[in-house]
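Slide 14.
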Amino acid sequence: MKRPLSATVVFVLITTIFSACANQQNPTGNTNTVGVAPTPDKAAIEAQLKALEYDWPRIVKERDGAAVRKLEADDVMLVYPDGGDGTRETDIKDIEAGALSNDPQEVIDVTVNVLDNDSAVVRSRTRVKGDNYKMSDGKCETIIREFRTIDTFFRRNGQWQIVASATVPVRSPSPAGTASSTPGESGSPKAPTAKPPTVNSSPARSASPAGPATP
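Slide 15: predicted structure.
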């Protein structure tokens, strides 16, 4: 006569069956969730990207085309203030030409939106002090041009690069002498580098979006 199974034996059998099924579904025994990326270090990424943006004044002043080649992706998409398209090679050519590279520049604000470990969007405002002209009272006034720029960064092979950038002119620039909203930080992510009054590029690239005012 067969003896009935005790409750303990039944429990052990059920547990064994469930364990075997679980092992078949996850044969590696890895309990980590697949596809979950580590949390980005936002502070570190912000510091890296701001350093790249604030390096534009040096790039323009020193006509450092090699830095532009490194910073901008070869397939970068550029939109200039007049709506025209640009390329990295055009930017390099204009930076190396060095036109208007000595105009004083100031960054008013830079904001970094970190998307993940390898992508971010940077918004900046650039103020460029250009030509002076004499007013009726004999005083000189500085022409100020301002721009808003959106740069999209991707990290490729460990290196941050701009893959897309769009710049628009600010219609009502701040008056001369207005303090920066980021004290201690100067320099422009981008500075106009050629031929006013033609409008066909972003501030760091090719032509100036606005020509000097007349008295």
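Speaker note: The chain is about 25% helix and 30% strand.
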